[in-house]
Each structure stands twice: as structure tokens, then as C-alpha cells.
Amino acid sequence: MIVKVRDVSRRLLGGASLTSLCVLGVLAPVASASATDADTLAAAASSDDADSSKDVVVTGTRVVRDGYRAPTPTTVIGGEEIERSAKINVSEMLWQMPALAGMTKTNTTTVSAGQVGIQAPNLRNLGITRTLVLLDGQRIPPATTGMLSDLNTIPNTLVKRVDIVTGGASAQWGSDAVGGVINFVLDKDYTGFKGEASGGITTYGDAPNFKVSLTSGLKFAGGRGHFLVSAENEYEEGAPPLTSRSWYTGTKSYLNPAFTVGNGQPYYLLQDNVGYTNIAPGFVISSAGPLQNTLFGPGGQVSTLHFDSVSADASHQWGVGGDWKATDFGNGPQQLMASSSRQNVFSRASFDVSDHINVYGQFMFGRSHSYVVSTPNFYFGNLTIKVDNPFLPASVAQAMTKAGLTEVKGGSYLDAIGGSRYDAEREQYRYTVGITGDFNLLGTKWNYNAYWNKNIAFIQQKFHTITSANFTRALDAVTGPNGTPICRSTLTDPNNGCVPFNILGTGVASPASIAYISGTPTLNQRLLQQQFAVSFNAEPFATWAGPVSIAFGAEHRNEAGRGTQDAKSLVNSYWAGNYKAINGSYNVTEGFLETVVPLLKDSPAGKALDLNGAVRETEYSSSGRVASGRRARATFVPGICRSCSSPGRR
Question: Which of 464, 283, 303 is nearest to 380 (CA)?
Fold first, then answer.
């Protein structure tokens, strides 16, 4: 048994170091990859693939060809590099790559889109939906109603290699791969037993995480069969709000109001100690006049905000210095990182029916729970308080009357409600059966690969926010017939159940009014994806420079979604959320052809010159036929021709 202990520190969440302790146990050797493994990349990509005589498939191409350099830029992360990084999740390693700078992590703001808690790659920042995620060249289940893939479902302990195609691969993989492809290649031939336990915490003493995994593989039937199973359990507690970090100084960028073309002023200003003049935890009057910057704070206490300077752009009014902390949005409850827990199981069984036929079946299950305190329910200076509001302090009401004001405008991010709370449960199931092998036709060896998979995702999303109509009614309070505050709407509709909400300060709203304005948009969704694919590749003839490689195949995919949402979401009743269920389906049928034609080999002009061409035609049931990808590129390898009559020429 081998036990490895690693002590790793990394920067996390704006300056915190995460100390991670990882214990890895390994029993029995790892079996070498099969010589016919069509997912193995070039020999130089990884020490796991040191035998350069193997047929290889690069994720950027469907062609199987010894020593071939794909014309599409491909980055490879090997197994040793993944292990050395000591990340709790292999997807964390991808964040460090410039090509994935736009990757969606466990963010805290995209609650309406349902992306909190998932890790969706975004190659070259071209858009999440333009990056295709594959597991051994096959699609994984969608994790959101926007059909995004979640890297958390990948069985981390089995990842042998990650291939990242950054140059676009729509000709090989379809229009989903306009931005590129990320293919997680698994060690499907692993034998033995290994386990891992790791965890960490920031130097602030928060955001703890841990991971426990077990993997086992064994052969049977005299080595003709192989069974593999892997299970993982991960937990990340998440991180508290910005104010928990000493480095937070209210830094904000905003449009420079003094900027005009040619005056030498910067278009944007970046400054520390910047708050808002038109929003506050309780309420701040932002409308122009003698009461502007009047703040209603703890217990309804009235004060006046003072700033060193005030600026404004098209969206907000900014207060620099002075009392900036009193209104700064960063002082709100929004977490830096979401909390999440994940459990994954992956199993695979394969059997060599003969030397030329291998059949296999796979099952993958993933469950995740994500929770985050997200964006507060903010209103930037667009709320109205009328002079007859019974919660208005007498001194302010008198000042309004003296100034001839019947109402004032102001803003709030509703400290009484706190941050909007997002809660999501996801379950994903993946079933796959396939057959691989080879046959001879007219003296040529043909390799084939056919599979069917069924991906099912069950998604429940809940978002605890406010009901807009109830909030509007509750905000407009007046003094009732018995001298107690009531909603103005209750005067004409006594049975409407409205409870007046006191926004004029923090800690002053009644629990009944908070319950009245609160709401929970809910979505329950079932997503179904089925795919059948078959592909062939061979080298049926040759040119003067070597054999011509071809690959072709067809795929058929069905996408369907069925779901329900609460009735209020359907008519956009909430401040945010307002989920809409997907109900419908469509089919996609695709065919592709790719070839590599060698034009030069070990010639005075260069070591090699290959012409690569690919085309893909797609038929959508919803929109018809389209050429989803076409490509023609040449790959030139300069070098000294050792066997030519004029050595040294290139």
C-alpha cells in the first residue's frame, strides 16, 4: 500500500490560503491501456501513453493515425499533473487556464438561470453553450434547463487525461463545439483498489471542504472481462460575505461622468471606499431636495449621509469616502461562494466477445445539493414613501410638509429580508451500452465504434425572494381607522390580507409583514437526452506520401424536457426567479466525414505536410438542415530530411 500525504497552500477567495491535506491509498498496480484504445492521445501527451506505436485519436479529430498532429489546437492535462495539483475537484484545475477564464464556477448570482453550484466551462469566453463537454467522447447529462454540462458529475478519480480543443471542433462534434471541446478520458482498464481523502480550509477559518473517494477494478473470465466502480463524496461549505475579508475596501469601477471624447479623462474610474447614495440596508432618500441623503438606520434612527464626493452614471449614484460603508452593497449578505455537496457513482463492465469485438455497459449517477445566500432584493432609488406613511418619523414628515413634498423617492436592499436564498437539488442518471472492434473489408482493416446512451436529469430549484405585488401593497402604508398602520389597499379591499411593511430602518419590520411579502418561486424539471452514434475509420488507400486516413459516422440525438413551475412564476410575480418549465422536444440527426491526405513525407521541402478536411451535415427537427461544420486545413512539419540526397535541406 502506498500512502501519500500532501500539504498544499493556494490562494482562495481574494487572498486566503487554503491548506489541503490529502491522503491517497493505492493497492495493486494499474493495468496498461489497451493497444486498441481509440481514446488514447499522442504518445507525448502523457506518460501513460508512452507507446508511440498505438493507434491514437486526438479529441480535435476523428481520424485514427499514428503520430498524426491534429490541425486544431489541443491542450492535454495528464494524470500525473492532475494528481500533483491536489485539487478537491479536477475541474478546479481548469480555472487556471487562460482559455477557460470565463468558466462558471459555484457562482452566487445566476439564480434565475439555475447555474449556482455547477461548474460549466466556457472556452475562450465565447459562451457556455458553445463549449461541448464529453466523457470518453460521449455527451454527459445536462445539469440545467439551459442544457449546460456540470463538470462536478465527472468521476474524478478515474480521469486519466483531459483533452481541451480550443480552436473549435464543430466539424467533428457538431455546432455545440463552436468554442471547443473538453473531453475527460477515463482509465477504463484500471485494476486494483485506491482511495482518497482530502480536505482544506481557508486562513480565515471558513469555507471548509472535503472529499472522500473509493475506486476498484478487477478482471474476470480469464482477463476477457473487466469491471470497474468508483464512488465519490464531496462537500464545500461555501464562503461568507465580502465583509468577512480584511482586503475588502469597497473598490468599484464606474463610468466617469467627467469623460468626453478628447478631454483626456479616463472612461472608467476605479476607486476604493465607494458606496451608494440611492440604496441602503433600510432606506435612504435619494430624490433631490432638502431631504436627500437622509438615512433610516438601525431601529429607524434618522441620520444624514455625508460623502467626500458624489458621482453618477447611467445606472447608479456613487458616494466616495465619508459614510460609504453605511450604504455599500458589499456589506450585504451575499456569500462569496455557494455551499454544495455532491455524490457520484460510476460503474463499467466490458467483455471481449472475440479478439475483434468488445461490448460494454456503463452507469453513472450524480446527486448534488447547492445552497447560497445570493443577491439582496435591491431597489436603486425607485421606491416611493408618501408623507402620510405612519412609519415615517414625525420630524421627517414635518420636513416634507414644510418643503411642500407629498412623497420622496429612495432605495433599499431590504435588510429585513436578507439575501435571496437559492436552493437546488439535482439528480443525474447516465446509461450507456456500446460495442467496439474491427473487421477486414477488401484487404483493409476497419475500426468501428457504436453506442447508445440515455441521460436523465431531475432538477428542483427554489428561490426565496419577495413577491413584487405584495411588496408594493405592503410598502404603501397609511393609518387605519383604529389608529394602527394598515395597507392603503385595505381601505378599499378589507379582506385582501395585506400586512404593512416598515422599510424605514433596519430591525423594524414585523415578522408578519416579512412573511407577507416573501415568496418562493419553484421549478421541477425532467430533462431527457438519448443518443445513438456509430463511426468507422480506416486507411483504405495511399498517396505517394503515405496512407490516406478517413473517418465517417452518424449520430442521432433526441432532447426532451418536461416540467412544472408554481403559478406565480408563470406570470413573473417575483422580484427574481420566475422560473419557466421547458415542455417540448426536438431531434438532431448528423453525419460527418473527415480525411487526412498526406502530401509530403521526409522530403527536401519538409518532414511532413498533411491536408485535413472535415464536413458535418445536421438535420434539426425544429429548423431543418444545416452544414454545422466544415474545415480544410494543412499541417506542415518542418525538419531536416535525413534520408534525402541533399541532407540539411528543409
Answer: 283
